[in-house]
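A further point concerns the way the authors explain their paired sequence and structure data. An entry of this sort, consisting of the sequence and the corresponding backbone structure tokens, reads as follows:
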Amino acid sequence: MRSLLRIVIVFALIGFVGSASAQTKAQKIGHIDFAKLYQMIPGQDTIKAKYEKYQKELSDEFNKSQAEYTAKLDEFQKGEATMSNIIKQTKQKEILDIQQRLQAFQESAQQSLQTKQNELMAPTIAKANKGIADVAKENGFSYILNTTDGVLLYFDGGDDIMPLVKKKLNLK
């Protein structure tokens, strides 16, 4: 019975010491300016060029539809006085349809541009995140904070891991 009690006490002490040492282990926190890192990764010119090309395609299509709308509206206004009611109503409906298409296209284009931007940026963001995760694991960081977006309200020191990530990603 005594030996059982000793074994229980020994295990309890080991558990207590183990949990106390785990609680005293300091969490290592680092920070990085993610936007700055993102801009350093090669390929930004290609991403920008592809985005601008897509934006121009959408803009050209919108301008073509806008020109159609303006032409129909001008034609209607010039001949309105001589049109019969049925023709006038038909032309007004045509103009309204074009106007609604323009509005729908504009809304769709905004969503499409956002999707395209996310699609183009995703590989670069993934590369940056992988570099940060690798550096964090290699250097024993528990947390890495992004100082770009102002979420960090206060920090006293900490370790800026930008040089380590730049080295990991072979950036200058």
Notes: The two ends are 68 Å apart (CA to CA). DSSP finds five helices and three strands in the chain.
